[in-house]
């Protein structure tokens, strides 16, 4: 064998042996501890704060590492259960205070608090104040019990970008007549009662939120407030639910992507001074309520490109709705209309107000009065309506008559589809299909059957 070959083999063996030694030396080595402090703190920020604090027992290197986290997450259910109950509550409060006291981070990105016990409002306000002093960007509080929240630490924090307050009971917040949060982009409130300082005379409250994008308030109440004006030119999404106060709510925005209202009818007024892409209105559990036709029509004045309307009620309460519809301006922007549980007279009234409608999707409940052959044909039937979807057809005579009215009068209709109720099966289903096919039309008929 050549000496050069022996030399090469020896060299290769030596390199392999050195590589093996280096690999073995790395086995069991704490690689994370060698990372820079700010990276370790960033990693710990993704853990619930309880676990981040527990890393202090790993080594001397880790004792104070958790104090530089930028996200705080507290949940009173995460601490070990103990008796008596009060000691558990005290232990949780002491833990939160201890973390906030030793925190070395110059700023806080997120502060999350989940509380299932009835804590004194003083402590919650102290914690909010502590993180507000560190330019917190996101505050999220969920509580099973209500409390009085101080508005000062929340509203002084101009770094705040997202505020979420949710409770199964009631948060009460006293504010001045002008509230301004210059950095807030998301406001999500559930179960919050706002009241204004000063005399008992109703006040005009202004929320100045120049960069707000999402506004959601459910089960919220305005006490001692006559009107609420939301100044949010960049607002994109608004979600509202019924509240028992009578405050008028006005949104000053440029363009909304979505507006959603869910709940009972109300005597309050909702005003949207904006161009809107999509509106979703659900008025529920109205069967024993005095239905406010004026309120419904006020919501319908919102001129959107897409309207989804669901009304759950006994229709004898809506005897005046058609009259109010006559006073609503035409829906000049409406291209998509979806309605559920409305009588044919109301549906026809909506269609007459929608000259540019392209798609109609609907499901209606039983009603006695059928459309007559002399019913006025909406303008959209003559020029724009291209697709119609009948949902949950049961084979009633009034359903077939309305289908015939659409198929015979929609001049530019391209597609009409029917989905059927589960109660309609077998021979009865085939008979209904046959009746629909025999209606004279030039559009494509589609039957949708769900398995």
Please characterize this protein's 3D structure.
There is one protein chain. This protein has a 20-stranded parallel beta sheet that branches. It is built from 12 helices and 20 strands. Helix 4 (85-102) packs parallel to helix 5. It is elongated. It is α/β, with parallel strands linked by helices.
Keywords:
single chain; 451 residues; alpha/beta; 20-stranded parallel β-sheet; 20 strands; 31% strand; elongated
Query: How big a fraction of the residues is strand?
Result: 25-35%
Distance N terminus to C terminus?
78 Å
Globally, the shape reads elongated
Our count of helices gives: 12
Structural class: alpha/beta
Poorly predicted runs are: 1-10, 21-26
Overall pLDDT: 81
The biggest beta sheet is recorded as: 20 strands, parallel
Structure summary, number of beta strands = 20
Helix content: 25-40%
- Gyration radius, rounded: 32 Å
What's the topology here?
Elements: H1 3-26, H2 37-44, H3 49-54, E1 71-75, H4 85-102, E2 110-115, H5 121-132, E3 138-143, E4 147-149, H6 151-155, E5 162-175, E6 178-180, E7 186-196, E8 203-208, E9 214-218, E10 221-223, E11 225-231, E12 237-241, E13 248-263, E14 270-283, H7 293-300, E15 304-311, H8 321-325, E16 336-340, H9 344-352, E17 359-363, H10 379-383, E18 387-393, H11 397-409, E19 415-420, H12 426-437, E20 444-448
Parallel strand pairs: 1-2, 2-3, 3-5, 4-5, 5-7, 6-8, 7-9, 7-10, 8-11, 9-12, 11-13, 12-13, 13-14, 14-15, 15-16, 16-17, 17-18, 18-19, 19-20
């Amino acid at each position: 064998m050549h000496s050069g070959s022996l030399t090469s083999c020896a060299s290769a063996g030596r390199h392999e042996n050195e590589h093996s030694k280096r690999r073995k030396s790395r086995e069991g080595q704490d690689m994370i501890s060698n990372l820079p402090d700010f990276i370790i703190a960033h990693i710990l920020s993704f853990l619930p704060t309880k676990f981040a604090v527990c890393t202090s027992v790993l080594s001397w290197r880790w004792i104070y590492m958790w104090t530089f986290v930028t996200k705080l997450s507290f949940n009173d259910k995460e601490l070990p259960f103990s008796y008596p109950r009060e000691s558990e509550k005290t232990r949780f409060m002491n833990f939160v205070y201890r973390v906030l006291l030793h925190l070395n981070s110059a700023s806080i990105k997120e502060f999350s608090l989940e509380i299932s016990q009835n804590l004194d409002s003083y402590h919650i306000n102290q914690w909010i104040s502590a993180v507000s002093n560190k330019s917190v960007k996101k505050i999220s509080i969920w509580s099973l019990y209500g409390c009085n929240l101080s508005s000062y630490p929340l509203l002084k924090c101009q770094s705040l970008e997202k505020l979420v307050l949710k409770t199964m009971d009631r948060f009460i917040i006293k504010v001045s007549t002008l509230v301004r949060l210059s950095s807030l982009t998301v406001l999500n409130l559930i179960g919050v009662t706002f009241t204004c300082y000063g005399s008992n005379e109703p006040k005009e409250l202004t929320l100045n939120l120049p960069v707000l994008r999402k506004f959601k308030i459910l089960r919220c109440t305005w006490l001692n407030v006559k009107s609420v004006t939301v100044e949010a030119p960049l607002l994109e999404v608004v979600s509202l639910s019924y509240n028992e106060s009578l405050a008028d709510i006005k949104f000053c925005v440029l363009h909304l992507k979505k507006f959603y209202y869910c709940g009972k009818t109300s005597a309050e007024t909702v005003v949207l001074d904006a161009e809107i892409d999509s509106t979703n209105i659900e008025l529920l559990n109205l069967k024993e309520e005095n239905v406010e036709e004026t309120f419904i029509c006020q919501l319908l004045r919102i001129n959107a490109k897409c309207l989804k309307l669901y009304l759950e009620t006994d229709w004898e309460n809506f005897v005046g709705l058609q009259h109010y519809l006559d006073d609503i301006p035409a829906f000049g922007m409406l291209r998509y209309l979806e309605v559920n549980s409305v009588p044919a007279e109301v549906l026809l009234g909506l269609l007459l107000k929608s000259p540019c409608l392209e798609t109609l999707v609907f499901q209606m409940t039983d009603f006695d009065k059928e459309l007559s052959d002399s019913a006025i044909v909406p303008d959209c039937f003559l020029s724009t309506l291209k697709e119609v979807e009948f949902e949950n057809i049961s084979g009633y005579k009034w359903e077939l008559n309305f289908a015939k009215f659409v198929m015979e009068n929609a001049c530019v209709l391209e597609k009409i589809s029917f989905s059927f109720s589960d109660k309609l099966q077998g021979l009865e289903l085939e008979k209904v299909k046959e009746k629909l096919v025999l209606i004279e039309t030039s559009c494509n008929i589609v039957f949708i059957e769900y398995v």
